[in-house]
Task: structure prediction
Amino acid sequence: MADVARLAGVSSQTVSRVSNGYSGVTEETRQQVLAAMKELGYRPNSAARALKRGEFRTIGVITFSLATTGNVRTLEAIATSAAHEGYAVTLLPVAVPTQDEVRGAFSRLGELAVDAVIVIMEVHLLDAATVSLPPNVQVVVADSDAGDRYSVVDTDQAGGTRAAVRHLLDLGHRTVWHLAGPQESFAAQRRTDAWRVTLTDAGCPPPPLVRGDWSAESGYQAGLRLADEADCTAVFAANDQMALGLLRALHERGRRVPEDISVIGFDDIPEAGSFLPPLTTVHQDFAEVGRRCVEGVLRQMREDGEDVAGPGTTLVPTRLVVRGSTASPPCW
Result:
């Protein structure tokens, strides 16, 4: 730092202010210091800065799966939002969602020196009374049903499902079949519950539930079964990948979409508009979920670990995107 100060013709304090992004330095002086840093190959020592400030400018992220679109896109949004705030992200995947694994993950993140933690908790784990996160940890949970104990950020799963089912009923379908996600998934359960309630409230009998595992292959296998259901004119798939497999199975069995069967998905993945036919689906704002997760942990950090908002769930709205895979039922 002293070498940079001499080359730039400024004090070491000024170099410190520039390297830490503080105000109170003219733009001309800032450029002189940056030029001197570049010429000398100077980089601030992040470890020393962390010790001095008492923070590491790093957010830890614990996730139990990188195989689903929702988790990957949420993680991407968290990393983008953290970078915008000047923070790095340390990722720690956990293979088995158990209490011991959660404790171990927090322990490892502590060794890696992070300031706060975001947990992407797709599975039913925090719902269990015997499972809890370590105390005195600044944490926000994404995709969970634990808002009574933690700060949770989630997509409005129920609202998106209601919009999807109502869209199909409004087109004239007497009922809507549901291709659900895995039973252990919180999001899948929320969508299944909302599907059943929406049909019941409309006076429509819910058909038997068909279960998948989020994959296109499980959607394909479910589609082979649904193609043989003569009274099936509309299907709500719990995600777009399963809807893709469903579309293939229906095509192979000679069931036209949407002329014979309407199909609607959930997620609005970038490829949804390129399906054949283009997929009607529920759009999730993953970028907003990630932004609010980062905003939540930073708020806790700035309030000395106390989340002034307290426990609770913040729901990010969804919206229905109507494309070519839904239409009125045959003989409407």
About this structure: Residues 156 and 301 are 26 Å apart (CA to CA).
